[in-house]
Amino acid sequence: MRSSERRSSLTGGEPLLSATLIVRDEERVLAACLQSLKSLVDEIIVVDTGSADRSAELALEQGAKVFHFPWCDDFAAARNFAIERASCPWLLYIDADERVRDGDHARTRVALSDPRALAARVRFYPRSGFTAYPEYRLFRRHPQVRFEGVVHESMLPALKRLVAAEGALILDCDLTIDHIGYDGPQTHKSERYLKLLKQALASNSRRLYLWWHLGCVHRDRGEIAQAESCWRHGAALAVTEHRQSADANLCHIELIALETQRGEDPVALIGEGLRLRPDNHLLRHLEARELMKRERFGEAVQLFAELAQIDPDTLLADHAYDKKIFGTTAATHAAECAFRAGLYHEAARWYGVAERTCSNALEFRTKRMLAEAHERRAATTR
Q1: Confidence band (pLDDT; 50, 70, 90) for 244?
Q2: Of the candidates 99, 109, 102, 104, which has an alpha carbon nearest to the alpha carbon of residue 41?
Q3: What is the pLDDT of residue 3?
Q4: Torsion angle of alpha carbons 131, 133, 136, 138, nearest 10°?
Q5: How far is CA 356 from CA 162, 188, 259, 346, 348, in A?
Q6: What is the C-alpha separation between 316 and 307, in angstroms, rounded?
Q7: Could you tell me the residue ranges of all domains in the chain?
Q8: pTM (2 decimals)?
Q9: Tell me: the pLDDT tens digits for 170-218?
Q10: Which among 89, 101, 164, 337 could bridge 301 via Cys, Cβ 3.0 to 4.6 Å?
Q11: Which residues contact 13 (CB under 8 A, 6 or more apart)?
Q12: pLDDT tens digits, residue range 269-316?
């Protein structure tokens, strides 16, 4: 029985949603991806771009419709070939190394039934241990909605044109997708991406994300000078053209890491990055670490305290963050800075937070009690 027939028999309605994938040698991860889709979608379209493994056979075994597309160094062309073979009114694009989380998928399907809606954002986790950001993954099957870009392809420019022309609605839905593809070394992809990124920049040299990724590819290949050159170019581009974009700080953050590794002072770069996006939590964390290093503990406490109050499991920002900069880690830094600044009440408070949220509670309980003892001693000498 096809997935669309299975869905119709459960809902009593017409098929609504097709999933589209492009794959190449993905047999290790593909089956789990397709399994995660079956309670959500009515149809699965898999386009194989030249696998030497059993990817196509696995897709057929999972009930997908499989097509073949000769690879032409153009991700958008392959994506568009896939969506043109879908039959449902709505499309979900997803990759083999991604998973749809279990949830109330009926709510997603109800949201997509809104006739005003053109697209919907999902909650997307780009790698294990990181926070989520909203990602455009659902869109109505429309002749003017097509992917653009040979690499880091996107349908967002087409969506924006239609929203401007027709006033269509963009939704936020409860659907959550986990990406596992970055859980491990990425060096095996560097040669392919090096070529495509250079090709993409030749036609769109103002796209900041491409400069950042090209720098990362050079770094992974051990070509540090080339990486730094890309990031310097991207950082300058961010200052002049991308002040408020979600990508504005990408190159600054890589340069800060590079300067820190060299033993150089990254304060100027941190400041420039914060002037672009003062809401960037990672830059706030790096700023606090630099203040701590300079023994400006009173200033650092406030920054760490703000980070400690953020719940990384519910955070949905336009940029993904390592969860370690929040919660217990931030509380511990806040407590240490407060203690060294003589703010013993604050130190006891944050050690208490760390005590409640960390498995190693004994260490923080001892430090909390020490801070409380210092607070009592200070109170008797006032």
Answers
A1: confident
A2: 109
A3: 40
A4: 50
A5: 50, 42, 35, 16, 12
A6: 14
A7: 3-179, 290-382
A8: 0.91
A9: 999 999 999 998 765 555 567 789 999 999 999 999 999 999 999 999 9
A10: 337
A11: none
A12: 999 999 999 999 999 999 999 999 999 999 999 999 999 999 999 999
CATH topology of domain 3-179: Spore Coat Polysaccharide Biosynthesis Protein SpsA; Chain A (3.90.550)
Angle at 255 between CA 252 and CA 257, to 5 degrees: 110
Q: Distance between alpha carbon 22 and the CA centroid of its chain, in Å? A: 20
Are the C-beta atoms of 122 and 173 separated by less than 8 Å?
A: yes
- Residue pointed to by tokens 């109505």: 140
Residue indicated by tokens 């920054």 = 303
> What does the block give as tokens for 24?
């190449």
Q: Which residue has the higher pLDDT, 9 or 334?
A: 334
Residues pairing with 67 in the sheet: 47
The token pair at 185 is: 């070394």
Q: What percent of the chain has pLDDT over 70?
A: 95
What does the block give as tokens for 348? 């006891």
CB of 283 closer than 8 Å to CB of 274: yes
Q: Are strands 117-125 and 169-179 parallel, antiparallel or unpaired?
A: parallel
pLDDT tens-place string over residues 94-131: 999 999 999 989 999 999 999 999 999 999 999 999 99
Tokens 């043109």, located at residue: 84
- Three-state SS string over the chain comes to CCHHHHHHHHHCCCCCEEEEEEECCCCCCHHHHHHHHCCCCCEEEEEECCCCCCHHHHHHHCCCEEEECCCCCCHHHHHHHHHCCCCCCEEEECCCCEEECCCCHHHHHHHHCCCCEEEEEEEEECCCCECEEEEEEEEECCCCCCCECCCCCECHHHHHHHHHHHCCEEEEEEEEEEECCCCCCCHHHHHHHHHHHHHHHHHCCCCHHHHHHHHHHHHHCCCHHHHHHHHHHHHHHHHHHCCCCCCCCHHHHHHHHHHHHCCCCCHHHHHHHHHHCCCCHHHHHHHHHHHHHCCCHHHHHHHHHHHHCCCCCCCECCCCCEHHHCHHHHHHHHHHHHHHCCCHHHHHHHHHHHHHHCCCHHHHHHHHHHHHHHHHHHHHCC
Asked if residues 370 and 352 have their Cβ atoms less than 8 Å apart, the reply is no
